[in-house]
Amino acid sequence: MPYPRVQPKINYMSGQFKIECQEHGRLLQHQITALHRLYEWFGGENIRNDIALVCMPTGSGKTGIIACLPYCLGCIYEVDGQPRYPFDKPILVVAPDLAIQNQLVEELTLLTPKTPFLKRRNIVPDDRNDVLPTAMKIENKDDLSDQQNLRNKELIITNAQKFVGEDWMNDFDSNLFRLLIVDEAHHYPAATWKRIVDKFRSTECPVVFFTATPFRTDGQLVLGEQNGTGIAYHLKLNDAVNGRIIRESSFHEIDAEGEPRFRNPEAYTDAEKSRARKTVAILDKVKELLDDKRRNFRDAPHMAIAICNNVKQAQLLLELWQSSYPNESADCYHSKMQRQRQEDVMSRLKDNQLSLVIVARKLLEGFDHPPISIAAITYKITSPARFVQFVGRAQRILRREGYIESEELLADIVTHKDYKQQRNFDNFKTEKLIAEVRGDEDDDDNDA
Predict the structure, then answer these.
(1) Cβ contacts of residue 35 below 8 Å, gap of 6+?
(2) Model pTM greater than 0.85?
């Protein structure tokens, strides 16, 4: 039976949601704890207007918390029996880019063929699509201009770039949303992100940040009284590893060089050729690890991801891999590719048709594909956030019905000693990385 119209759907279903999640174990314990903390954060006697930050390692299930959060807040009632947050207005979820926006659409809505999180975990029965929020994916800025259409939805998913520009933003109703969720929030308080938060934040529209890295790429803290932010829940890296929430990571630093085969040697500088020799040594280790995982963990697919400093380096890495291992499929994914080409690579990746995907400062945040368990670093990463985000691509445990991943399957991080990542990794493991580094990426062409 559809929900009664006397109360907004999310509020009405929140009680049943609470039973399914807590009593029937539909969520992992740390996800339940995070939701409890957020309930306490916004459900206290005094209504809070400061931003709640949830900090969890990459791969530990924050998207599931995002899916459940509206129903959690819908359980908060005032003394007069009225909901503190009546979800008679839409929820706005903001992602940093199109790839993560698409992933959130898959996980939170019925707009794609993929089964969303709430149904996959049996929090919502298969025959109750009416429980899920009616949703809209913002495809372009024009979609945001039709505010009446937005009001007719319960969930709006967009990326921050759709809010670039000042004129139309001034005309936007600041009271349009009931809840603002910001994914990969370490971008805040960059100008566009701050404008979005400042526009919609109020006591009636709480703001929740989610991130694996509570600091921006320039080394400045997202947290702090100056930003009106506080940690509502923090899952420590060691706790996530020890609890088998994410994979334990292993570091491999190569102290050797290989002999690359170029299709057009004259097209590359001496510095690029020197870098290529280090890259070949890294790729040889990647192939060795792939072969080892395929032998020892045969009941799951295995893939690797490699990061380069720019598109030219990514294309060179692809050439080196293809010349060394012609029978192992690989491809690039970067911002210079046409949209259709990106979608094709993404489709092959999700279908496990690639042994290696090569990125150039893209596909670092929020993208989850558990068969990836090897992360290769082919240049000197100096940004704490970038390092943490990239390593996290290999940490997500594969969870599917009838399969239990072996604790011996590690997230393997591979790099060359000349890129000086040992200190980054040591500080990453002890969660001290932010104390050591300031500044965004260096262009390391001179380090080859």
Answers:
(1) 21, 27, 65, 68, 69, 72
(2) no
Task: Find out whether 324 and 283 touch, Cβ atoms under 8 Å.
Answer: yes
Residue positions counted in the chain: 448
pLDDT digits (tens, 9 = 90+) for 129-162: 788 899 999 998 888 888 999 999 999 999 888 8
> What residues contact 302, with CB distance under 8 A and at least 6 apart?
290, 293, 294, 371, 373, 374
H-run or E-run covering 425:
helix 422-429
| Cα dist from 178 to 86, 133, 202, whole Å | 8, 13, 9
Instruction: Report which residue type is found at 355.
Output: S
Q: Is residue 53 a contact partner of residue 229, using CB atoms and an 8 Å limit?
A: yes
Residue owning tokens 């790429």:
217
What sign does the dihedral 355-360-365-367 (CA atoms) show?
Answer: negative
Residue 193 makes CB contacts below 8 A (sequence gap 6+) with: 94, 160, 182, 185, 187
Query: CA-CA distance, 307 to 294, in Å (whole number)?
Result: 22
Mind giving me the DSSP string for 177-220? -SEEEEESGGGTTSHHHHHHHHHH-BTTB-EEEEES-SB-TTS-
pLDDT digits (tens, 9 = 90+) for 255-280: 999 988 888 888 788 888 888 999 99
